């Protein structure tokens, strides 16, 4: 970490440096003066210049440059090369933690002009982390032969050295993440969950979610640590607090706690994993599978049973002018999302199945017309839950504002299906509604507040939803949300920075007299606070493709207190998808061949992978894979979840 201030850096650059042969090629701004010509300067070609910008000269008239990341000022190198700027980039506290990862991911492989042993070892460890390679990879005979051929100067390392280098890299990157967390202007929300490895060791994963100064939602895995039994509330809370103290963020994690008190008596402090609850609700409803779904399942099995049947089905698809590339999907009975996708694809090929029934006498499981009609109703019913699961499974966009509309649609759909004439649909809705009301009868107030911070909805949407559910406007539930919203705003407004007494004094006597100018009672009474002004403004078109963080970034100076509130509320995650994705990585790190890894090595592998490549992996990961992580949740943990939640903020 850079210990000196800006002035010290400027002074240090006045010292005479010894130019090494390696730095001769980096000489910049060399003055070329020929007879009869003006001074010319060589174009800056060093790789360090994209990271620095020129600033105004100081009192000594010497040119200076400033680091674009941390703002430290240096004298512009003249005849002494750019060695000091290079050394600063290596130790800059705001260096991107993904620099090493991007070097591996770059198209040109990060080609360099000279061999650097330290960089070589760093890239080796980064490759082990990225591709989940065993440490003995560095001892493979063929790999060593390749390295020796490419660079005879390369010094081969052992597996123990690679492990030690990994621990050093983890510690170094951890300090950078720690600085990033301290620098975050918003409060930090956490998701946490437990996972059991193949050797039955318990691990706890904690992930931080926050919005940075550029209004970008960030996610970082903080810990993937060994968690010995017992796994009760006291042990988990003690472990979590110790981890927060280790990261030095214990004062930033108490979501929406201001100073010593929790807002609204702690109503906003804890939140269950919405995706997990949604899974439990649908699983209860699909315990009894209708005969129509059974026929579709058997139909898909029949088509996939042999190449001859597949060919016959494709002929039927072509006869009906359908797209054969979409394909059929076989479901896994214990995962309702796969059943939904199977039904959706089967409905697309409905006419092909009917045609196959006429051309293939061995095909006996084609649903009847009435059964196809029932399948369409089931598909439409489950689509509401599938869309909500996809919305809850987002990790790189705010999900808090998406909670209330999704849960409202689920509740409304269940209540409507209670009056369905079909006995199967009605029985399924009854079972699902009972589970829904167990967890979500009282809509989470914090997440109801989040939708009011969406300019497409505001408070009018909350009132509209409760009116659709209860039949009248201004329900007690709506009034409760409104009261908590204004209470939360007043706490933020009361803690907003105010103008100092010295500043007010500099304003002069005339301004002071203006401040005390008498305003008539009617005008004073009509004044509104910023929250009321925001709510009174016309709503944005609901169908607009709005980036809510960009909206608040653009309006943070118009509504500073509300923007600060939005920065904290919108970063609250509503599911533990981030932890579930990390468990998938953990399952590949601790497999049957590497089950003896030490817990600190496992944590270094998992966390460093997230810090270096997490953003790249999320960009490449398909939505179906994220949803699949949610579907892999252990449904037997429901009783445990009653004692400890899955998501906390």
Please state the average pLDDT score: 79
Strand ordering within the main sheet: 8-7-6-12-11
- Extended strand count: 12
- Report helical residue fraction: 40-55%
Radius of gyration: 31 Å
Class computed from helices, strands and strand pairing: alpha+beta
Beta-strand portion reads 5-15%
* Cα shape: globular
Spans of at least 5 consecutive residues with low confidence = 1-38, 255-264, 499-507, 633-649
What is the helix tally? Answer: 28
> Distance between termini?
30 Å
The biggest beta sheet reads: 5 strands, antiparallel
Task: Give a description of the structure.
With 649 residues, the chain is α+β, with helices and mostly antiparallel strands. Helix content is 52%, strand content 8%. It contains 28 helices and twelve strands. A hairpin with an 8-residue loop joins strand 3 and strand 4.
């Amino acid at each position: 970490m850079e210990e000196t201030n800006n002035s010290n850096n400027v002074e240090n650059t006045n010292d005479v440096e010894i130019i090494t042969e390696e730095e001769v090629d980096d000489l910049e701004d060399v003055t070329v003066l020929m007879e009869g010509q003006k001074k010319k300067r060589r174009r800056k070609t060093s790789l360090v210049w994209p990271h620095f910008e020129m600033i105004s000269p100081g009192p000594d008239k010497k040119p200076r440059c400033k680091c674009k990341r941390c703002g430290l000022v240096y004298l512009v190198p003249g005849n002494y090369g750019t060695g000091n700027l290079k050394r600063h980039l290596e130790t800059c506290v705001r260096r991107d933690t993904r620099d090493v990862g991007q070097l591996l991911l770059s198209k040109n492989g990060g080609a360099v002009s000279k061999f650097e042993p330290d960089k070589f070892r760093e890239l080796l460890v980064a490759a082990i982390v990225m591709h989940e390679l065993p440490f003995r990879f560095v001892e493979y005979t063929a790999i060593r032969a390749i390295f020796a051929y490419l660079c005879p100067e390369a010094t081969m390392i052992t597996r123990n050295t690679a492990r030690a280098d990994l621990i050093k890299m983890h510690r170094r990157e951890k300090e950078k993440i720690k600085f990033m967390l301290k620098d975050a202007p918003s409060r930090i929300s956490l998701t946490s969950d437990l996972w059991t490895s193949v050797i039955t060791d318990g691990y706890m994963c904690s992930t931080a979610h926050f919005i940075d100064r550029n209004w970008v939602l960030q996610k970082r895995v903080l810990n993937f640590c060994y968690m010995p039994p017992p796994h009760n509330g006291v042990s988990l809370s003690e472990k979590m607090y110790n981890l927060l103290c280790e990261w030095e963020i214990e004062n930033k994690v108490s979501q929406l706690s201001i100073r010593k008190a929790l807002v609204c008596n702690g109503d906003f402090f804890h939140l269950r994993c919405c995706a997990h609850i949604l899974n439990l609700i649908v699983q209860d409803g699909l315990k009894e599978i209708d005969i129509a779904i059974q026929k579709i399942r058997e139909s898909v099995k029949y088509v996939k049973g042999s190449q001859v049947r597949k060919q016959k089905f494709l002929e039927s698809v072509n006869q009906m002018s359908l797209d054969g590339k979409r394909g059929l999907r076989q479901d896994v009975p214990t995962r309702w999302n796969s059943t939904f996708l199977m039904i959706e694809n089967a409905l697309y090929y409905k006419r092909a199945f009917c045609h196959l029934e006429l051309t293939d006498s061995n095909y006996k499981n084609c649903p009847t017309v009435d059964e196809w009609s029932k399948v369409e109703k089931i598909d439409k019913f489950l689509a509401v839950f599938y869309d909500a699961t996809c919305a809850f499974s987002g990790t790189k966009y705010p999900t808090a504002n998406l909670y209330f509309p999704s849960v409202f649609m689920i509740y409304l759909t269940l209540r409507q299906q209670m009056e369905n004439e079909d006995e199967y649909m009605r029985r399924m809705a009854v079972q699902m509604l009972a589970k829904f009301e167990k967890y979500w009868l009282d809509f989470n107030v914090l997440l109801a507040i989040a939708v009011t911070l969406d300019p497409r909805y505001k408070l009018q949407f909350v009132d509209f939803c409760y009116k659709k559910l209860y039949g009248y406007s201004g329900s007690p539930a709506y009034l409760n949300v409104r009261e908590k919203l204004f209470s939360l705003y007043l706490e933020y407004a009361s803690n907003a920075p105010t103008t100092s007494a010295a500043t007010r004094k500099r304003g002069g006597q005339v301004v002071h007299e203006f401040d005390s100018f008498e305003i008539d009672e009617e005008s004073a009474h009509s004044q509104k606070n910023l929250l009321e002004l925001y709510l009174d403004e016309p709503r944005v078109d609901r169908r607009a493709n709005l980036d809510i963080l960009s909206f608040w970034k653009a309006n943070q100076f118009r509504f500073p207190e509300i923007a600060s509130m939005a920065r904290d509320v919108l970063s609250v995650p509503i599911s533990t998808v981030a932890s579930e994705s990390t468990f998938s990585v953990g399952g590949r790190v601790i497999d049957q061949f590497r089950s003896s890894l030490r817990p600190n090595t496992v944590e270094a592998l998992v966390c460093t992978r997230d810090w270096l490549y997490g953003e790249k992996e999320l960009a490449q990961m398909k939505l179906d894979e994220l949803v699949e992580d949610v579907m892999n949740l252990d449904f037997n943990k429901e009783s445990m979840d009653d004692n400890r939640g899955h998501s906390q903020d």
